Amino acid sequence: MPEDAGATLYRVRTPMAVGFDHPAQRRTRADSLLLRLDAGGTSGLGECAPRAYVTGETTASVTEALQDVPMDAVLRRLRTDDPAALLAALLDRGFAETFGVRGGNNLLCLLETAVLDLLGRRLGLGGEGLVPRDGAPAARPAELPVSQVLDLGLGVEEFLDTRGPFHFVKVKASRDIRRDVRTVTAIRARLGDRVPVLVDANMSWTPEEAPGHLTALRDHGTDYVEEPLAKGSWADLARLRAHGGPRLMLDESVCTPGDLMTAVASKACDLVNIRVAKNGGPVTAGKMIDLARRGGLAFQVGVQVAEVGPLITAGRALAFAHADAVTVEAGQSDRFFPEMVVSPRPAVDRAANTVSPPPGPGFGLEPNAHAAPWAVLCHRAGDPAGWRAAAPGGPDGHHGAEPQDRRPASRTKEHA
């Protein structure tokens, strides 16, 4: 195999200029993995953003699992297989089945986004050509309106004064339902009835208190409530939905196609939040959108807080391919990160709060000099040692300030 075939793993923990608070997590820095694959003169960049409270995965566990992936076999297929045929197989069967790799959703997402990006670049395809479109409407808009999120670190008046125009508002719930009711009341007083409002409880309510919370929020203008109970509380969710009030959206409870089918069978929700990393990559996420439609559920295309690269544009590719979403989240990378580890910076038109399709080819992003210091592991095809610790400054020789918590210990097969 040529010497240019290989892989580089980055653990990006860039501090956030503005924190983000909700009942399940306070986040003040990114925690994503980027994977660059090089094969046959083409590169591809993938990303995952593991969150333990969502899928049980962490950046450490995904890093460990990646070192058990037969990377030489993956790189060999990227060099030798017909790229159009390989892409068709991926869109039909997903990464796990196509490459015979098993693992958690974020591991599969990391690998799948990197491989799709590489194939898109080789074939000259943009992001919409790299996601399944089963059941999607024919219309492909030039831009999509995106929702605005009010987290617990921002006051409602400041939010209303600075974050418009508003197409859809998502409120991160507090531990005090009275505060949440006041927040929704203030939003309705300013925006009237024209903008949908969702309150995201992030699994923080008990089954006993939830009906009262739902009624209070309904009476003050809430249209949707997201993930009100503990993850996977199917029977309690069905009873809560039957109680009446805002429509229920599930997020953390629906990580796999099996979860989605359980949600449909249990009549536990009205819509689901589809997120690329949570759901195992763009292919499974796209297939789950079609499953939701066929099960009578609506859907949102959401994001992980503090995505740093390909997850942003992969999510947007998914949203443009399936433009019948109730709403689309664009993330806040422009607010969180004054400097990004990829170029070009994924843009949001803040004057209109809309996004455009990703530029392509592939998912349209390259790691830049800010990424290099976050490199943690390198693999060169045919190296019997497997993964090795990245050289200081990254594989491309860029030397910058050493980030904190920069490098997990490398692990070779001999030391497994």
Automatic annotation (TrEMBL):
PROSITE patterns: MR_MLE_2
Composition bias, Low complexity: 384-393
Residue ranges annotated for the Mandelate racemase/muconate lactonizing enzyme C-terminal domain, each copy included: 156-247
Family matches, as Pfam families: MR_MLE_C
Region (Disordered): 384-416
Keywords from the UniProt entry: Metal-binding
InterPro entries in the record: Enolase-like_C_sf (IPR036849), Enolase-like_N (IPR029017), Enolase_C-like (IPR029065), Mandel_Rmase/mucon_lact_enz_CS (IPR018110), Mandelate_racemase_C (IPR013342)
Biased composition annotated in UniProt, kind: Basic and acidic residues: 396-416
SMART domains: MR_MLE
Name listed for the protein in its UniProt record: Dipeptide epimerase
Organism the protein comes from: Streptomyces gulbargensis
